[in-house]
Give the backbone structure.
Amino acid sequence: MNKKSLNILSAALLMALSGAVSAASTSWSFQSNATSSVAATGFASKVAEFSSMTYTNGAGNSVTMNAFANTATNAKIEAAYLNYQGSSGLGVTSRDSGSNDEVTSTGYLNNPQHSFDNQGATESILFSFSSDFTLEQLDFGWTTNDSDVQVYAYTSATAFSTGTILTKDYSTLTGWTKVGDFASPSDPRLTTNSTYSRYWLVTPGPASDKLDYIKLAGVTGSYKPTTPPPAVPEPMSLALVGTALAGMIAVRRRKAA
């Protein structure tokens, strides 16, 4: 075996032993009550509303959500409220500019504005993860109209605070990178997304496409690996390793002879 062949086998051995494994995806379902939540007085007296909701999945990973909407003066963003919609998932209650037309006079939510929507005001849900995370899929339990979504990631080097959202407007958010517009629920996968961030903002939209109504049923994504994960050789990789080792041993024996 010549030196070139030995180099090829050595490279194959290194690839088989050191190849990185893709980060595994993790999911949360919002089709049951949150693991923990912070209740709020909110806008609808006959509906349980929350200023934050935290879901912990079977792997012990948690995500916390808060709601916002551009319902303040001059369409600036202020706090809104999450509400649990049973097996359909989560909706958002916001105070529309001028009048609160999401809530009936009897304290219940209007249909279809009992959802997460952009009728009148544009509502948004902030996802906070424990470490850098990339969104891969949004699941919807109920929709009306085409139900597109806009996705933003907080990518600034400045420490995140809700001040990067409150009193701002969606067109001039500072520190946020718009990952894209996605057509859902026909294809809820965020196929073009390779961005990692601890904080993600999702809104129905885009703004030019009004009347998107969504109940959010779940989310899937992956945490950013902090170190290269150990390689787990597959059968083909093991065979390649064996071939490489045999070749290297044969070369050593010929040299010894």
Notes: Residues 36 and 90 are 14 Å apart (CA to CA).
